[in-house]
Design goal:
Distance between the termini: 17 Å
Order of helices and strands: HHHHHHHHHHHHHHH
Protein name: Amino acid/amide ABC transporter membrane protein 2 (HAAT family)
Keywords: Cell membrane, Membrane, Transmembrane, Transmembrane helix
Subcellular location: Cell membrane
Structural class: mainly alpha
Radius of gyration: 20 Å
Transmembrane segments: 24-57, 69-88, 94-116, 172-199, 220-238, 295-319
Largest sheet: none
Shape: globular
GO molecular function: branched-chain amino acid transmembrane transporter activity
Number of strands: 0
Number of helices: 15
Helix content: over 70%
Strand content: under 5%
Length: 328
């Protein structure tokens, strides 16, 4: 009887959606960041929020095969919904988070009725149109959203009535980490559920799945709405920890950034959202600090290298490497 090597266990972690040592390592790294990098908690919190956003895109694109270039529609909807809820209804953050998720889910459901009737380039352009329309709506609704000045002037109450948001960002970090853990656990469950498995089948061969009796469009619409809700959670988090919502939360740059994150990390693997968001955010921060004018060049070079030498992303590259090491 042979004992599986640690490397082979890591390789399986990238393809099987069960809790394992790698999950514990990620959680340990997040906890260690709080204690060892306390001067960078604002950046670390932003990384956690973008991981949530990248996970939401991976659910739609990586597992459902839904091509999108307008995922910021859900991020921005969640952000504005949470900000307006805090301003006009209640500053309580947990309920505000669910309001943001619900609002984004509704947008995903309604837009999905049109988006999922198409495929390929047409689908991509429709998602971009939806995000652009919401951006213009937020811009013209200045009495409500404050337009390009940004939605400000609201406050967020202590989490659970106990943990006040502080200027150092400690509460914001733990709050964002808690939401990420819950979202990640839900994604683990979702991709292994009948809905997630049939969605992956639809991604590979929609015609065959339809012949097997699977309601293809209904399954994809459900998955798209769930993905939208998770994107709304990321937007709501951003609105609550930053106390401002700008038009850029609905902009093309937000959609493009999360798409690049997922391309770097790898689609169809939940760990890809982690790797892609961490690498993108940290490299962008350091490159902008070194050269505020040309910092995007560093990201462009990295993306070219990854697409050329690791077309399945960093997670796919690591999975292949650990699998090869485990068989030696």
């Amino acid at each position: 009887m042979t004992t599986p090597s640690p490397n082979s266990s890591v390789a399986r972690a990238f393809s099987r959606h069960r809790y394992n040592l790698l999950d514990l390592v990620l959680l340990g790294a997040a906890v260690a960041t709080f204690f060892l990098a306390d001067l960078y908690l604002a950046l670390a919190t932003a990384v956690l929020i973008m991981i949530v956003f990248a996970l939401s895109l991976d659910i739609a694109q990586g597992y459902g095969g839904i091509e999108t270039l307008g995922h910021a529609a859900f991020f921005g909807t969640g952000a504005y919904a949470a900000g307006l809820y805090a301003m006009h209804v209640s500053p309580e953050p947990i309920s505000g988070l669910f309001v943001g998720m619900a609002a984004a889910a509704v947008v995903g459901l309604l837009s999905g009725l049109a988006v999922l009737r198409t495929a390929g380039l047409t689908q991509i352009m429709l998602t971009l149109v939806c995000a652009t329309l919401l951006l213009e709506l937020a811009n013209v609704a200045k009495p409500l959203t404050m337009g390009d000045d940004g939605l400000t002037g609201y406050s967020v109450a202590p989490v659970l009535g106990l943990f006040q948001f502080d200027i150092e960002g400690r509460t914001a970090y733990w709050y964002a980490l808690a939401v990420l853990v819950l979202v990640y656990a839900f994604c683990k469950f979702l991709v292994s559920s009948p809905l997630g498995l049939t969605a992956q089948g639809v991604r590979e061969n929609p015609t065959r799945m339809a012949l097997l009796g699977v309601p293809v469009r209904r399954r994809l619409l459900t998955l798209y709405a769930i993905s939208a809700a998770l994107g709304g959670a990321a937007g709501a988090l951003s609105a609550q920890v930053n106390n401002i919502v700008g038009l850029d939360s609905l902009g093309f740059t937000m959609s493009a950034n999360v798409l690049v994150m997922l391309a770097l990390g790898g689609t169809g693997r939940l760990y890809g959202a982690f790797l892609g968001a961490i690498v993108f955010m940290l490299l962008a921060d350091r490159a902008a600090a070194l050269d505020p004018t040309n910092w995007l060049a560093a990201l462009g070079v990295l993306l070219i290298v990854v697409v050329r030498f690791a077309p399945t992303g960093l997670s796919g590259c690591l999975a292949r490497w650990t699998s090869r090491e485990g068989t030696q």
